[in-house]
Amino acid sequence: QVQLVESGGGLVQAGDSLRLSCAASGRTFSIYAMGWFRQAPGKEREFVAAFNWSGGIIYYADSVKGRFTISRDNAKNTVYLQMNSLKPEDTAVYYCAADPRPGPVRYRREYDYWGQGTQVTVSS
Questions:
Q1: Which of 39, 60, 86, 94 is the residue whose CA sits 20 to 30 A from 108?
Q2: What would the pLDDT profile of 74-97 be if each residue is shown by its tens digit?
Q3: Given CA atoms 71, 97, 58, 68 in this order, what sign does their dihedral have?
């Protein structure tokens, strides 16, 4: 079992930056893929970014390319999402996800483990 805890959300103004953290615990050695998703009010859950832990190949949604960066700290078992140039449309609950299954990550949307989410609100 893997536990994920997100933190770092908050209320910011358009153009500001936030850094989200996802701390993993439990069987972290089993994690193959990790990703960030978000869900805005009245919207479906949306893919944001993902990578496979060993290869380090990163995929981003078109809506965040050039603004968001996903990274990891192996020593801390933590994944980060650096969000720059935030826009009001980035407002959502952001979720961290992990999955033990090997295989392609680019189009993976089903993950075994999810965090509780952290709220990001961007005012105009």
A1: 86
A2: 899 999 999 999 999 999 999 999
A3: negative
